[in-house]
Amino acid sequence: MSKVGGTVVCPICGKAFAATSNNSKFCGPACKLENGRRYAREYERQARADGRCNPLNLKRPTYSIQEIGRAAQAAGMSYGDYVAKVGL
Ligand SMILES: [Zn+2]
Q1: 6, 32: one domain
Q2: Do 24 and 39 lie in a common domain?
Q3: How far is the CA of 28 from the centre of ligand 1 (A)?
Q4: Ligand 1 mean position to 5 CA, how many Å?
Q5: Residue 11's closest CA among 37, 41, 36, 31?
Q6: Which of these, 46, 73, 81, 75, lies nearest to 60 by C-alpha position?
Q7: Residues with CB under 5 A from ligand 1 (ion)
Q8: Which residues sit opposite 16 in a β-bridge?
Q9: pTM of the full structure
Q10: Cα–Cα dist 43/5, whole Å
Q11: Which of 24, 53, 79, 88 is the most exposed, having the fewest neighbouring CB atoms within 10 Å of its CB?
Q12: Which residues contact 23 (CB under 8 A, 6 or more apart)?
């Protein structure tokens, strides 16, 4: 489905803007940059949380840290143990 011509809400600043392409996600370069910063920060945090620095983790954005943390707790494991065992 084409988004061109429609309105997209920027996930960073919450501003609505006109989509100029199908992958318009941010209202401008500043928010795109900010998203990159947040993503890098999140990745760093995750890498530290599971005690290793595996770039492959970047390709698995399906689970949030909170979700994994909850699942780990439910399984009676630490976050690191859980991630190592389940291979998320
Ligand atoms: Zn924005």
Answers
A1: yes
A2: yes
A3: 6
A4: 18
A5: 31
A6: 46
A7: 10, 12-13, 27, 31
A8: 9
A9: 0.46
A10: 33
A11: 53
A12: none
